[in-house]
Request: fold
Amino acid sequence: MNLREVKEKIRSVKLNPIDKLVSFFNPESGKRRLHARMAMEIFGGYDGASKSKRSLSQWVTSGGDADTDILNDLPDLRERSRDLCRNNPLAGGAIKTKITNVIGTGLRFQSRVNRDVLGLDDDAATRLERLIEREWRLFWESREMDLARTLNGHAITRMVYRQEKENGDVFVFMPRRKRAGMPYDLRLQIVEADRVCNEDDKADTATMAGGIERDGDGAPVQCHVLKRHPGATSGFAREWEKRRFYNQKTGLKNIIHFYNPARPGQSRGVPDLSSVIEPLKQLGRYTEAEIMAAVVSGMFTVFVESEPGGEFDYSKIGSEVGHSAGDKDMKLGNGMIVGLDPGEKITSANPGRPNQAFDPFIMAVMRQIGVGLELPFEILIKHFTASYSAARAALLELWKYVLSERQFLTDNFLRPIQEVWMYEAVAKGRIPAPGFFDDPLIRKAYLSGAWVGPAKGQIDELKEVKAARERIDGRLSTIAAETAELTGADWDENHVQQVKERNAQIRDGLLSDPVADDFEEEPEGEEQQ
Reply:
């Protein structure tokens, strides 16, 4: 550090209110505090915290807690995020890419009860698992489980995940409604994030922020919900209702607040596009400007220059192109020859489009956007041009993100719903589960299972299958795990179907029965060796 930088650091040191108060009552102590602060500024700390460097001197930051930094900006972030998803191809495509890869056709539940805890043999455990899966599909694949009778469980999962990405969070209420033909009373109701807000728009407090009321430990107690969306066009009175997060009698969840907090004490989530809203908007404006310039260039516009005081006679071309005399919005006709008066000449307008630098610039910005959205560049633009290795690396990076998101979705949305549903299924006797209500360990043993989604993309399926076989033969994996990884299917279901198909082929003579071949009698007259 040179002398000039040292002087700048010393001049940048400022007394805070406490320093000034100490200096007023005890100048000697104030002097020592000032010297210590100068020494810290010159010799200690991080360059990134410097206030003397010109590159950082104008950097204004906020030191608020999570809610202070988020809640004031959240309405604008939501509205702009939704607008980008509707009207910006890149933003909408990025969100849809995440939904397609993480959810796809839906995440299927595979029951895997804990045999040791429940004391079941393999046959009994398998029968129980199949019963649990059948009952779950009865509930999950029916539109009756939706309070609005519109979506089934897979479609609701996609909507909930999309809402969390677009708006930052979403609320799922779990009321009870009896309906004919459906043995389960549990229903799901999706509530958009905008509806949850402080009653009468009151200011946030230590226990009430963003429409969520918390206890002294910071746990959510209840939320304040507008009966209708605040942006509804038809007139209505702004009325709130309070909904408790947990059932006071059973302790089960009444509300799932699906969001991904990044800081302790964060009450609400932020849209996935928050960090890239500005570059996405600017990129959209730049693209529109380039498209317009290219259209103008394709029209081949010309200008007629006249001498000072002169006026071009528009009647000379008006009759040829269908325009009346005096109409100055003219077009060039095909193969036309137009005579000009003395002193007049034609000047063409050349916007220089298409712009050769357009595509490289767009690609550079989209690489940064891809990093911000945690999507590989090739996946974001749906274009693989580098090499097999680069494309495979992009898919592997995407798969890491997909597995992480699926785990988050499973832990914070699917499993809570499954737990509430299982309580009802056992209470109504549809699933026999001794000890379910008595011991949390036994209850967890019954609830154990995996959520399997669509398989990851494959560039060379033959290589992937060979690698799976090598892992199985080397005892590094299982057939069930590789089946789920490669195809997203359930090995148990595959096995039952394969046995059925093989028996049918043997019965119809398409395959020989290996057991019958082993017991085939030796021909007469031949001695056994």
